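step: validate -> pass
step: tokenize input -> pass
step: predict -> running
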Amino acid sequence: METFKELEAVGKDVIDVETKKANPDPSYRVRPEILVLEARAMLLESDKNFVEAERMLKRAVSLEEGLPMAFGPPVIEKPTHELLGEFLLRRERKEDAAAEFKKALARTPGRRLAMKGLASATAH
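step: predict -> pass
step: emit ->
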């Protein structure tokens, strides 16, 4: 858990630096928060706290969806719809997972992991 606290601290530092730069593109200020939410969700899932993990992933999705797409989708290390789709697939919620993979592919067409996830979610 100490490593997670370090990740949160670094994320806050990055947000502070980017805020001071006053860059009109908010993605550099939001990406660290998304990364922390994704990491927290994975830890919660490993602790079998599925409800809270899903809540964290949905918060990350909401943040990513709020980012501008002026020059294409924002650079997110692990696209949030894809990660939520994988989580839902592990919970055997195939319909919900398929919807998330479709959203992921709408934002990042042709992404192999999202295509693979959609195929798994729609397989009979």
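step: describe -> The first helix runs from residue 2 to 21.
step: cleanup -> pass
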